[in-house]
Amino acid sequence: MDDSVGFLLARAGGRAIRGLNRGLEPFGLRTRHYTVLMAAAQHGGLAQRELGDLLGIDPSAVVALVDDLQTAGLVRRDPHPDDRRTRLVVLTDEGLKTFGEAAALASKIDDETLAPLDAAERATLADLLRRIARP
């Protein structure tokens, strides 16, 4: 099993997600909520379909995640300037504050998860994962 790249990726990913979920508990968030906040912070207003495509999440799951975040006051759905049928998911001021705090925590958890690697190995790993993760 130690030679199976898929197994090792799943195991490492599971470890990272469990750590992040524990860290996000005080914010009332899970990893998937955090990824929606991150996408909205990095890209500005995104349609739910764009969020799903960007994050690789089923559209119905995106709706539920955005509903959770909207109920918590972290995002709002604004009208799209060019398409009346589309709403853009935008961070509220509280969402921006929460994302900033959660991002700092996520960075700390990343550092803990990647502690066995030196800086060059971390950069190589991130590059390799980006190449693999592209659709």
Automatic annotation (TrEMBL):
The keyword DNA-binding applies. Keywords: DNA-binding, Transcription, Transcription regulation. Residues 1-134 form the HTH marR-type domain. GO terms for molecular function: DNA binding; DNA-binding transcription factor activity. It comes from the Bacteria. It holds the Pfam family MarR_2. PANTHER family: TRANSCRIPTIONAL REGULATOR SLYA (PTHR33164:SF64), TRANSCRIPTIONAL REGULATOR, MARR FAMILY (PTHR33164). This is MarR family transcriptional regulator.
